[in-house]
Amino acid sequence: MKHEANRDSVPIYSQEEIKQNAVNGFLAFQKGCRQSKRKLFFRKGVLLFFLILLVGLGFSLWQIWSIDRKIPSTMYVKKGTNPELFFDVPATGEIVAVQGMGKSNIPQGSVTIDMKEKVTMVADSSFRYSMKVRLFGWLPFKEVDIKVVDDKSVIPLGIPVGLYLKTDGLLVVGTGEFENAKGDTLSPSSKLLFTGDYILEVNNKEMKKKQDLLDAVEAGHGMPVNMKVQNDGEIRYVTIKPELDRTGQYKLGIWVKDSAQGIGTLTYVDAQGDFGALGHGISDVDTGNLIECEDGTVYRTNIVRIQKGQKGTPGELTGRIFYSDDNILADIESNQQKGIYGSLRGTLDTSYGPMQIALKQEIKKGKAYILSAFSGEPTLYEIEITSVNLDNDNVNRGIVLKVTDERLLEQTGGIVQGMSGSPILQNDKIIGAVTHVFVDNPRKGYGIFLETMLEP
What is the CATH T-level fold of the domain 72-149, as seen in this structure? Predict the structure, then answer.
C-alpha cells in the first residue's frame, strides 16, 4: 500500500511491494544478462567465422603462391636429352602448341601430364612448346614456355676484379640551392632536372664527363643552355639559365656523375671470350637506379682487407684496383639487371676447364660449392642449397643458400659484398652465381640461375 504525506513527499512502499520490486528487478537483470550473453556469443561467432575465413583464404593464397614458384614461366630443356621433370604440385599441364613446325599438329587434350607425378620428356628437336597449366585439373593457372636448346658449357671463374662503369651521359644525382652575392637563394635546375635524369647533350655537344658540362656552362657566360635529357628511355629537351654564385661563377645547381666503380667477381667466360659477372646489375648508390652504361672496363685487383659480415651489417671485400692499361682484363659492354657483360682481352689463367650448365630444374637442395679466389687462389667452399624457386619475380633470387664451410665462415663470416658473381657449382656443373647476402644472417644468401644470366 502506498501512502502520500504531501505533494513533495517521497513515495513510501510497503514491505511486500519492496520484495516484489526486488524480485522483478532481479528477474529483469537476469533476462538482460541472458540477452547480453546471446549477443556477445553471436558477435564472437561472427568474428570467429570471419577469422577462420581469413585464415583459410590466407593459407590458400600462400599455397597458390608456393605452387606458382614451383612452376617456371619459362623452362629450358637440353636438346638430345630425356629429362625427368617433377613439379610435385596438384595441377595438370597440357601441351597446346609447338612453334617451329608451323601450325601445331597437337590435337587439343591429347598431350596432358599430371604435374604431381614424375614425367620424362623427350627433347630431340629444337622446338618451342607451350604448356597450359590448370590447378586441380580444371582451374586455369598459368602458361609455361618450354624451349629446347643446345647444351652449352662455360668456364667458371670466381676471380675478384675492379669494375669501372662509364655512364651513358651524365647522371643527375640531385638538384640543390646556392646563394648569389646579394645573399639570394637560387636553384636554376629545380623542377627542370630530376634525380635519375641523364644529360646526353648540352648545346648539341655530347656529354661524356663532368668537365664537359662545366666547360659548356663557363663558355656560355650566363646564357641559357639547351639540354637533351633522357630518363627511363624517354627523351626530353630543357633550357636552363645559369646563375652567378657568391664567388662569381656560373652554376646550374645540380650534382652529376659520369662513372661508377667497385669490386665484383667474374662468373664465367665462354668459348668466344664473352664473360658474365656479378649476377646483378650495378645501381647508383644515390638514386638506387640501374646505371645506364655506355661502356666500361674490368681491371685486375688485389683484395687487401676483408670486413667480416655480422648480423645487421654486411661484410665487404676491399681491394686495390690497378687502373692502368696493362692491367685491363676485359671490356664491359652492358649493365643489366641479371649481370655485367662484355668480352675478355686475351685469356685468363683458370683452374677449371669448360663445365656443363645445369638448368634450374636440375638443381637439387643440399650440398653445393662456391668458387672464389678472394684469398688469392681459386678455392671451393661448401654451401647448402636450402631452396630453389623456379619462378621468382626477382631474377636475382632464384637460389637460397647457406654457407657451411668453416674456412669461409672464419675468413668472411659468410657472404660479403664483393663476392657477388662467385660461381655456384653442384654435381660437377655450374648452376648459378651468388648475388646477395641476408642482412640479418650473413651465413645465408641468394643466387641467380646461370641459365638466367645466359638468356639473350
Answer: Immunoglobulin-like (2.60.40)
